[in-house]
């Protein structure tokens, strides 16, 4: 190592590295500087801070060695302790934490395996792949059949790979680490007691923070200064992140070591977000709990397992069957909560190249939180199956109700239509076409409200393997433009809404005949027959929605807004619909058996690496 003047490099140092309170000297390793893995160091008093090159002549401090502390046991803080927007020079002087070492060591020893003395070749390779934000190398390294990197290896400052990726805001890499490193600790702590979520929040990396929380990261951990991720995002003035964290229901009363809650660290803009959040939760939850009530509620909380896996569920009964798998009623053994579990056959999905559909829809639904769309809570996989754990809708699907009741009165159908229109509106806003609207994909919740359930596997070309029995039923739900195979847009959903409405009030789909070719011909050219007994507005709505030319169809110009303004819906308060205030038809709830079979017994245990892993599948909603 040679001494170099700081000025020779300072122009390349990034904000963090330059914001040191006192830099005594700079040491540069010129050999390393020749290649990409350049390390230099600067001295700050008795501490030596490592500086690392990040893409193209920028340098950042990645950690700190106190010269008289054994690096293995080093309690120096990492660069991540610096708080954006808190740039007093002293805030960046990296103080040694004051908490009891013994205590922390004992906690670490219980929770995490001791880090190996020196990093293995695989650990180093993974470190550099992450540093270079090289996703394909990361995936190669962690999926290699040879020796694997240690998922929770602790680098300088006790930062794990996930800490590093989270701090840098590397979304895809963080996702890959979570997906492929089975025993990864989402809530690992570094020397500052910071978890990856702290670091993502500190740096305002919203998507990484969302990924971590959705993958099961604790929402309220405190770091060495008593700060939660919410405190850190308030300090950083990251208003969207604060807003999002608040939507997950964190504990906003936690005080840091200076006795400040997150809100007290916020600026005016963020304080306003807190006020809106508090108003909303007070309305939803009623008067707030006393401190002691809050504490006992917190204590009573079931501890959240680190990873959700088949182990936690028992299968109670089948609920339905789709083209690619079955849906079962399952119970989470820890919480007692009932869910619908969709099991997809990996081999079928992979062999038909449908993984991308499954994943895209999983990603979309993992972000959607809508009153009339089923929510995805967890996704995991075993060697043979992909599992989606969804809201359980005990009212059954509309196809089953129609097969028993034949048809519904217009008033009952209207409630379902209003609710489905709002669900489609939400999907269209996100540029998603549902394409598979049919009675089988609409389930009823405990109060009888209509909920869309399907993950879009039945997209064009996917559903060619119709079983003979359901063949015509499925064809009846094909729009003319889909049959022509000349491409289709959002309007296809409005056509299918017309088919659904027709079937609900007439008892069979429009143009229906049991002859497949005749049915296809009818959809394209046949005369639309509407029973005279329907109301004028209903007949009008059917005609407008079943318009063959998508450009002339209701909804073609202004999408859902146009459909909502149709005369049939006159007097509907759409905000009340969204608040689930329409009175749906009452449903008899099924009896649920108490006896279940362990999910693992039925479908095999967690993914063991013996088959193809579907990347990016795992998901935990908070
Ligand atoms: N969340 C749920 N709650 C209760 N029952 C459900 C739920 N989701 C699905 N079902 C039942 O399972 C059946 C099949 O589900 P789903 O339509 O999602 O499967 P699928 O494989 O996507 O089918 P396809 O692709 O053929 O439409 C539904 O018709 C319904 O009866």
Automatic annotation (TrEMBL):
Residues given in the record as ATP binding sites: 342
The organism's place on the tree of life at top rank: Eukaryota
Positions of the Protein kinase domain: 313-569
Compositionally biased residues, Polar residues: 70-93
A Pfam family recorded for this sequence: Pkinase
Keywords: ANK repeat, ATP-binding, Kinase, Nucleotide-binding, Serine/threonine-protein kinase, Transferase
Gene Ontology molecular function, alphabetical: ATP binding; protein serine/threonine kinase activity
Tagged with keyword DNA-binding: no
InterPro entries, alphabetized: Ankyrin_rpt (IPR002110), Ankyrin_rpt-contain_sf (IPR036770), Kinase-like_dom_sf (IPR011009), Prot_kinase_dom (IPR000719), Protein_kinase_ATP_BS (IPR017441), STKc_AGC (IPR045270)
Repeat region (ANK), residues: 192-224, 225-257
Spans annotated as Disordered: 70-95
The name this protein goes by in its record: Protein kinase domain-containing protein
Organism encoding this protein: Stentor coeruleus
């Amino acid at each position: 190592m040679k001494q170099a003047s700081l000025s020779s490099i300072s122009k390349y140092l990034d904000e963090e590295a330059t914001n040191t309170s006192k830099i005594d000297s700079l040491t540069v390793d010129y050999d390393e500087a020749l290649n990409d893995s350049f390390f230099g160091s600067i001295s700050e008093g008795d501490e030596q801070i490592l500086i690392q090159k990040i893409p193209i002549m920028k340098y950042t401090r990645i950690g700190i060695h106190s010269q008289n502390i054994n690096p293995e046991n080093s309690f120096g803080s990492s660069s991540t302790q610096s708080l954006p927007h808190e740039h007093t020079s002293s805030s960046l002087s990296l103080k040694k934490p004051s908490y009891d070492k013994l205590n922390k060591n004992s906690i670490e020893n219980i929770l995490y395996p001791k880090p190996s003395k020196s990093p293995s070749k695989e650990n180093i390779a993974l470190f550099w792949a992450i540093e270079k934000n090289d996703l394909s190398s990361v995936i190669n390294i962690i999926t290699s059949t040879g020796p694997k990197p240690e998922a929770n290896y602790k680098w300088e400052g006790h930062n794990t790979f996930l800490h590093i990726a989270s701090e840098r805001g590397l979304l895809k890499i963080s996702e890959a680490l979570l997906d492929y490193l089975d025993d990864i600790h989402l809530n690992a702590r570094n020397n500052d007691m910071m978890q990856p979520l702290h670091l993502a929040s500190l740096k305002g990396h919203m998507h990484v923070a969302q990924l971590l929380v959705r993958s099961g990261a604790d929402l309220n951990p405190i770091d060495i200064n008593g700060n939660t991720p919410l405190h850190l995002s308030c300090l950083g003035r990251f208003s969207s992140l604060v807003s999002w964290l608040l939507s997950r229901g964190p504990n906003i009363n936690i005080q840091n070591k200076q006795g400040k809650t997150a809100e007290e660290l916020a600026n005016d803009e963020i304080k306003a977000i807190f006020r809106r959040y508090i108003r909303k939760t007070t309305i939803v939850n009623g008067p707030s709990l006393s401190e002691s009530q809050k504490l006992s509620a917190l204590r009573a909380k079931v501890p959240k397992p680190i990873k959700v896996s088949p182990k936690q569920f028992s299968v109670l009964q089948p609920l339905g069957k789709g083209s690619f798998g079955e849906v079962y009623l399952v119970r989470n053994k820890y919480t007692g909560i009932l869910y619908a579990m969709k099991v997809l056959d990996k081999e079928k999905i992979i062999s038909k190249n449908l993984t991308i559909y499954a994943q895209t829809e999983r990603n979309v639904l993992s972000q959607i939180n809508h009153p009339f769309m089923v929510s995805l809570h967890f996704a995991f996989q075993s060697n043979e199956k992909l599992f989606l754990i969804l809201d359980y809708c005990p009212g059954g699907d509309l196809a089953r109700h129609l097969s028993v009741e034949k048809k519904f009165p217009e008033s009952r159908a209207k409630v379902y239509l209003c609710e489905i229109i709002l669900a489609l509106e939400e999907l269209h806003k996100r540029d998603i076409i549902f394409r598979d609207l049919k009675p089988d994909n609409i389930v009823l919740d405990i109060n009888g409200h209509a909920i869309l359930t399907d993950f879009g596997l039945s997209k064009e070309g996917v559903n060619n393997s119709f079983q003979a029995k359901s063949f015509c039923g499925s064809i009846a739900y094909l729009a003319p433009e889909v049959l022509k195979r000349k491409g289709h847009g959002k309007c296809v959903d409005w056509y299918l809404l017309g088919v659904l409405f027709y079937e609900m009030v007439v008892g069979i789909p429009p143009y229906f005949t049991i002859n497949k070719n005749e049915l296809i011909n009818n959809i394209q050219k046949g005369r639309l027959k509407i029973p005279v007994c329907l109301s004028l507005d209903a007949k009008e709505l059917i005609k407008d929605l079943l318009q063959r030319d998508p450009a002339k169809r209701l909804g073609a110009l202004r999408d859902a807004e146009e459909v909502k303004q149709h005369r049939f819906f006159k007097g509907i308060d759409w905000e009340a619909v969204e608040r689930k205030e329409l009175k749906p038809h009452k449903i008899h709830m099924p009896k649920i058996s108490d006896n279940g079979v362990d999910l693992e017994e039925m479908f095999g245990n967690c993914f063991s690496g013996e088959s193809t892993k579907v990347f990016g599948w795992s998901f935990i909603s908070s």
